[in-house]
Amino acid sequence: MNSLPPRDLGFARLDTDRLARTGDPEVVLAAHKTPEQTIASLRALAAAHPGRAVLATRCDEPTRATCRREFEAARVDDEGRTVVLGPVPVPSGTVAVVTAGTSDLPVAREAMATAEVFGTTATLIPDVGVAGLHRLLAEVDRLAAADAIVAIAGTDGALPGVLAGLVGTPVIAVPTSVGYGASLGGLAALLTMLNACAPGLTVVNIDNGFGAAVAAARIARRVGRAR
Amino acid sequence: MNSLPPRDLGFARLDTDRLARTGDPEVVLAAHKTPEQTIASLRALAAAHPGRAVLATRCDEPTRATCRREFEAARVDDEGRTVVLGPVPVPSGTVAVVTAGTSDLPVAREAMATAEVFGTTATLIPDVGVAGLHRLLAEVDRLAAADAIVAIAGTDGALPGVLAGLVGTPVIAVPTSVGYGASLGGLAALLTMLNACAPGLTVVNIDNGFGAAVAAARIARRVGRAR
Amino acid sequence: MNSLPPRDLGFARLDTDRLARTGDPEVVLAAHKTPEQTIASLRALAAAHPGRAVLATRCDEPTRATCRREFEAARVDDEGRTVVLGPVPVPSGTVAVVTAGTSDLPVAREAMATAEVFGTTATLIPDVGVAGLHRLLAEVDRLAAADAIVAIAGTDGALPGVLAGLVGTPVIAVPTSVGYGASLGGLAALLTMLNACAPGLTVVNIDNGFGAAVAAARIARRVGRAR
Amino acid sequence: MNSLPPRDLGFARLDTDRLARTGDPEVVLAAHKTPEQTIASLRALAAAHPGRAVLATRCDEPTRATCRREFEAARVDDEGRTVVLGPVPVPSGTVAVVTAGTSDLPVAREAMATAEVFGTTATLIPDVGVAGLHRLLAEVDRLAAADAIVAIAGTDGALPGVLAGLVGTPVIAVPTSVGYGASLGGLAALLTMLNACAPGLTVVNIDNGFGAAVAAARIARRVGRAR
Amino acid sequence: MNSLPPRDLGFARLDTDRLARTGDPEVVLAAHKTPEQTIASLRALAAAHPGRAVLATRCDEPTRATCRREFEAARVDDEGRTVVLGPVPVPSGTVAVVTAGTSDLPVAREAMATAEVFGTTATLIPDVGVAGLHRLLAEVDRLAAADAIVAIAGTDGALPGVLAGLVGTPVIAVPTSVGYGASLGGLAALLTMLNACAPGLTVVNIDNGFGAAVAAARIARRVGRAR
Amino acid sequence: MNSLPPRDLGFARLDTDRLARTGDPEVVLAAHKTPEQTIASLRALAAAHPGRAVLATRCDEPTRATCRREFEAARVDDEGRTVVLGPVPVPSGTVAVVTAGTSDLPVAREAMATAEVFGTTATLIPDVGVAGLHRLLAEVDRLAAADAIVAIAGTDGALPGVLAGLVGTPVIAVPTSVGYGASLGGLAALLTMLNACAPGLTVVNIDNGFGAAVAAARIARRVGRAR
Amino acid sequence: MNSLPPRDLGFARLDTDRLARTGDPEVVLAAHKTPEQTIASLRALAAAHPGRAVLATRCDEPTRATCRREFEAARVDDEGRTVVLGPVPVPSGTVAVVTAGTSDLPVAREAMATAEVFGTTATLIPDVGVAGLHRLLAEVDRLAAADAIVAIAGTDGALPGVLAGLVGTPVIAVPTSVGYGASLGGLAALLTMLNACAPGLTVVNIDNGFGAAVAAARIARRVGRAR
Amino acid sequence: MNSLPPRDLGFARLDTDRLARTGDPEVVLAAHKTPEQTIASLRALAAAHPGRAVLATRCDEPTRATCRREFEAARVDDEGRTVVLGPVPVPSGTVAVVTAGTSDLPVAREAMATAEVFGTTATLIPDVGVAGLHRLLAEVDRLAAADAIVAIAGTDGALPGVLAGLVGTPVIAVPTSVGYGASLGGLAALLTMLNACAPGLTVVNIDNGFGAAVAAARIARRVGRAR
Fold it and tell me: Which of F205, F207, F210 is the best substitution to test chain E (most E C-beta atoms within 10 A)?
């Protein structure tokens, strides 16, 4: 535990040692922060990691507007609600990001931006839900060729389990809060994925495109670098 | 409401008017009854409906043994836990009963016996769960040809939703309590089915092969008789 | 699986093969879509199915306004939040849509529009909840004469179970989110329906008038066509 | 609060003042007690209230056997699992105890014994569940004539709500743990009852025939005594 | 079931027979209705019951404003969200309405108005929660003197159970949605009340001051009239 | 129970005896109150306890604005939503308030103000969540030196359990509603804390910084005064 | 973190450093262990802490029998399911352990044994539940005199909240799994305690008499030692 | 989808094509099967895959005994409840299997056997739960050196989240049903893991050591083979 001391912002202690421990810098989850707190955290992280892109997720509209104003070079994605600052790593390995429906796209966009910041190449394959199975079957070869798959689905959450029976690629499933009534804000999809019969499937929190992409990127770039 | 008075057994009032109202006699749910109560109910129902088969479901081993002793002509199914007395109707229409896995067979057996008592022909297609999709795809034509489908699945409960995207036949989904952990005794499968994206799917209680088969038989025989 | 390729809209892949597989074209669930996405999907579906009505459900006010502007011939229902484009099929068979209360009417309206688009004739029987039982008993003959029943109820969700004890017609129960406190957003009504004692009842997701009507229409038109 | 000191049994402090405060002596809930603890409590309560019956509920088989051995004059009900010692009060007012099904009888028996010990006359009307509505309608006049109604139902728990729409008598609803799957051990019936539309209905804990009967007896005897 | 035909408003069937069946006219639950629907229902009920007050509950601000405009003689309570039209019955018996805290007052106000419309006299005893027990103990005699008690509490919901141990009067407990976090919108208070150890307590839905008052009024006026 | 009579404000009965019983005056939970009710309660409490600070928690913006206007000497904390009036006690003992993240700060601020009013010295140690463990390990000595610890965490709620394994100081854990999806509004963090393996940890309601600080202050000042 | 290396038993790593970190040695939770694993762990802990008592909790009958055989000097409590080996510390401070009912005694016994091993004096005050409030009020002075209180209650869990309004002593509440139906295995009591209005109350896991006693002992002995 | 036809055993259709699709043969989940069904499935799988080990998980004692009798060469693990037949692949890559406590060992054993059958090398690091953090810190280097980590924990489930903050290795978290009360059969641990702040963590079903090991093995051997 001979680690770098955290950088103290008063309201936050940045974990600037995380890059050394885990290979990736800390990320700002903007969800419960003021725009000012997010800006200050991003600025400090960028200063601590000049050679590596830093990321903020769940940026609401005011935060994204402030970022655009404050950081000229920021790449801001309105659909995925992400902000990226600084140079992304040379990518290694490939991740396929698939969604069951159109409404899952914001989560997919968060995953795409994250994958890039965490050093891998991501491809988007949207709207291949199991209600029209042939749309998925047409993409099996592309999916099998990826080093890792992020599979995103709301409502019944059935897509990742069906997909995991078709390929041997590691599948990381993301339930989304898309749905109504007995979808219980994404809990139904989460339970479906946890109970999938095909092995090799693992799951993250509801709408957590970020976490899924970090896991997928770490797999993909390990394979990619070893190749 | 000029209905037949119920037959009073002291502990129960048999709804002998139900045949006139709904086209089918009352059924004995043996689950919370003593063998003696089940026997007495079956005997009274058989006496009230001499020309029509009567059914008891959820018969435990002692009840099944007593039925075998008391009713020489009883058809007893140990796997499906059903007891049938009396002549079944001439069947009309067809029902396909599909299961996702081997462990769903007891529920399927209950559905098969019920379908027969409720006047339709049932065919069993077991173990076509979505983890090995080609098993299901190989049966699509047979499934599309049925007048109604009972689709039974535990764990993730994904089979009925995938199936409902492949055929236009009415699909009645039965979640089963097969699974562990986050399957929550069948609640996960139930939620999956309620949230399925493909329309035309309806759902019954967990492990309720009986109720699904009644609904399917009523659909199938209406179609069959109209043909 | 020699199916038509899906039509790719970038953000969506329309399942234009669904009509061939299931007898009905795909439907647009507008709930999580922008007005633009819904319009584009409707337009593509209408182009793919010129001889058959296409449907969008859960259209919010901006989407309905845009539809009125963009599609001169659209039939827009503000209460049921549906938009229909193109000629509906010649109806076959009949569906009765009953509600327990006045507040269940939006769900009933969604079911009515859906039944028409899916090729059957629907009749509305509102406000016959079990707190005033004679209102329901007065309608039993009309209900028994239908080929399928959609029974819609919030709060305690008791109507469909009582109804299923009165008629042999297939009953598809729709719990609604009407209620407060321990109604748990419709979960209480859903559980009541899943546990109904009278067999022949099947259930769909909370507020899913669309799904119930598709199932009912498929039953009714099969019977109607066979007649 | 100038109350009688509780009687100290070491493991328990009997609330011998309760008769003065509430009009009824304390009752022994035997469920989590050893037979010896139940016997000792009953004996001490009987000694403190020689002129008034004392009651133990939820007595398992060993406790009932011990009670039969220890108390010659005990009235033991094996179905309702109750033990009564000493003279019951002269009854006042009437309570109707109705059940939806045969399997609800143990709860009804607990309610019957309790009503008697708490000083009212109870009548049992079993197996009038809403799946065969005419059974209930045939009893409406008898039910309306009671001073209070205890309505017991498992599975969907719909009986009390339907009944409360038919009479103005206070209805106390008891959900039972009869059912399976989505009945959730009686929670589904409990929720149904809490959400009933007809007013005048109140609810007790699952399987709590005792509590319902105490409330009903207190209503009935107040009315009876006032008459 | 020789009952009056329901009055058909198109969107609603008024249960004008309810007065004959249960002794009290139907009530309008305005919660999910437009102001126009509520006005029309109130007007029809008032016309059907000219000699008896009619009630609407859960009236939001626009509905209350419309009522004030449309019905000169309406008694409108902004805190309790009730509207009353027409002469209340001569009261019979007494009901005590107690609350645990200040924040439970809206539910208490709904109960007060309901009790009056349902023909009994109600007294309010606010803010006697168990965190300051002496406040409750000081009111025990007044509470014991009532014919029925409505006990309203949010957060931990402990008041009704403590009260039921102090008096023999029937206690009807109302959980409220007052609280935060693990109060789960009133479910915690509801569970506390259902599990209270002192018998004689019955429970209604969360925030259901109306239902509790109907039950209490029916008890109180039976006792009052019998006296 | 020879206690001071409560002060009656009409809508509330102030428990002015609480100081005598428990050592601390009553506190105003402003959450479900109007600004006027909060002001009136604060004023009455301040009048009853001129020598001791009184506190209102969960004051929304209008309430805080009114307090600033009405009470010149009020100390108002916008982040912690607290208002304090009157002289705080001479502090005794020390409490450490730690948070897992920046977003837990409002709850920490509520705890800080409460600790001061309840007579102890509080120190804030923010943003030491377990994702960057060295931040916590660097503070262990400071934490071990406190008389009691309030540990605040949302999302996975892991901080208090890790901390309780590092020190023997009593730890009071506060789950927060910070998180999304399967955090279930703080229930996930609450469950984590209740299941922590290290003993010595106790838990309060979600976001209940106030309650945690009262418990911690009572421990700390007992130790401090005994020293 | 210059800590003692854990002692490796193959299946377990004893945390022999815990005494240094927290002031108390590790404890064996026997619940999921074989008798052999528990014996081996106890033996190793006793060897590592010859001057200090070691404790095993949740010992089932076979484990207790084996302990009696293997450790001549073991103090085994069959009701509390604890085993203690070695000399307990000289006690400091006092803890009152109160229960709502007789059925809560096993949890109280676990707390009593734990308090002794963790170096404080514990007094048992059983069966003072709020259904007979005077039993509790008679003990208030004894309770107020303790340095900390462990308050144990099942069913509605109301005791600790009432108690916390009567005294300023820190109260640690233990919900128990005593109850049925809507007690949900202790969850109802847990929620009641988390929502208690009187501050100063903290809560532990269901049936966790051990954890409550550790927290109480740490408070009591700090106060005791400081005195 | 030019796949091998499934092998039909009457009660099951073996998915013998799975090896071609995913790189690994089907596995028998013995949990809901009779010993005879498990034996028949294992035998058929072994015949179909003579060059590759086949696996059965969740084998109860009778099934394990039958396997030992029927298959001379079977490797049976009583703690992990696995049966392996046939030659395991030459391992590639490494997986670390860590547990929080001794009671998590059965799940770890299932993971160990699975990892071997799925072609990787697994190392066990037991009992490093966060209540004694130095046990975990001592193993960080070994953990960081693995290609993937399976982290198993019950009760609070905090271990995987702490671990994911210390290393950049992909961590697959397995909640276990070890715990009591508010652990809710493993749901508490599951929720903790889904809400972990450190990214890179993914989760499987409660007690699903098998699924976690398949995912880990697929990651590890991809990396291993690429090296």
Answer: F205
Q: Is the pLDDT of residue A156 over 50?
A: yes
G111 and G189 fall within a common domain: yes
Average pLDDT across chain E, whole number = 95
Residue G1 falls inside a structural domain = no
Phi/psi for A226 (5° steps) reads: -70, -25
In this structure, is the dihedral angle defined by the CA atoms of residues B142, B145, B150 and B151, taken in order, positive or negative?
positive
Amino acid G9: pLDDT:
87
- Distance CA(H219)–CA(H222), nearest Å, equals 5
Query: Could you report how far apart the first and last alpha carbons of chain D are, in Å?
Result: 32
What are E97-137's pLDDT values in tens digits?
999 999 999 999 999 999 999 999 999 999 999 999 999 99
Q: Which of E66, E85, E104 is the last residue of a domain?
A: E85
Alpha-carbon Rg for chain B in angstroms: 18
Could G205 and H128 be called an inter-chain contact, meaning their C-beta atoms sit closer than 8 Å? no
Give all strands (DSSP E) within F15-141, no chain letters.
Answer: 28-29, 54-57, 75-77, 82-85, 94-99, 121-125
Who among F15, F31, F206 is closest to E135 (CB)? F15
CA dist F15 and F211 (Å) reads 18
Residue B3 has what pLDDT? Answer: 55
Q: Provide the 10 A C-beta neighbour count for residue H67.
A: 23
pLDDT of residue A9: 87
Q: Considering the domain boundaries, does residue F62 fall inside one?
A: yes
Size of interface D-G (CB pairs under 8 A): 56
Three-state SS at C50: coil
Contact C102 E12 (CB under 8 A): yes
Q: Which among H26, H54, H85 is the end of a domain?
A: H85
Show residues of chain A in contact with F103, CB under 8 Å: 31-33
Q: Which domain holds residue C108?
A: 94-226
Q: Is the per-residue pLDDT at F3 higher than 70? A: no
Structure tokens at F70: 């009405």
- Let me know whether A126 and A187 are in one domain: yes
- Give the ipTM of the model, two decimals please: 0.95
pLDDT band per the 50, 70, 90 thresholds, residue H21: very high
Q: Which residue of C has its CA nearest to D183?
A: C195
Sign, CA dihedral C48-C54-C58-C64, equals positive
Of the partner residues G101, G128, G134, the one whose CB lies closest to the CB of residue D3: G134
Based on the structure, what is the number of domains in chain B? 2
D6 min Cα distance to partner chain G (Å): 7
> Can you tell me whether residue F37 is helix, strand or coil?
helix
At D104-129, the pLDDT tens digits run 999 999 999 999 999 999 999 999 99
In a domain, E162, yes or no: yes
E213 and E102: one domain? yes
Among the partner-chain residues G15, G32, G190, the one whose CB lies closest to the CB of H182 is G190
Tokens of F25: 């005056």
Identify the residue among A156, A163, A183, A190 best suited for mutation to test binding to B, counting B beta carbons within 10 A and taking the highest.
A156
To the nearest whole number, what is the mean pLDDT of chain D? Answer: 95
pLDDT of residue F2: 46
Contact between B118 and B218 under an 8 Å Cβ cutoff? The reply is yes
Secondary structure class of G174 (helix, strand, coil):
strand
pLDDT value at B100 more than 70: yes
Which residues neighbour G46 within 8 Å (Cβ) at sequence distance 6 or greater?
G54, G85, G86
Which candidate from H1, H195, H227 shows the least CB-CB separation from A137? H1
Residue matched to tokens 């702490």: H162
What is the residue type of C206?
I
Burial-class residue G70 by CB neighbours within 10 Å (0-12, 13-18, 19+): middle
- Quote the CA–CA distance of A169 and G55 in Å, as a whole number: 48
Read off the tokens for E124: 């309010």
Number of neighbours of residue A138 by Cβ within 10 angstroms: 16
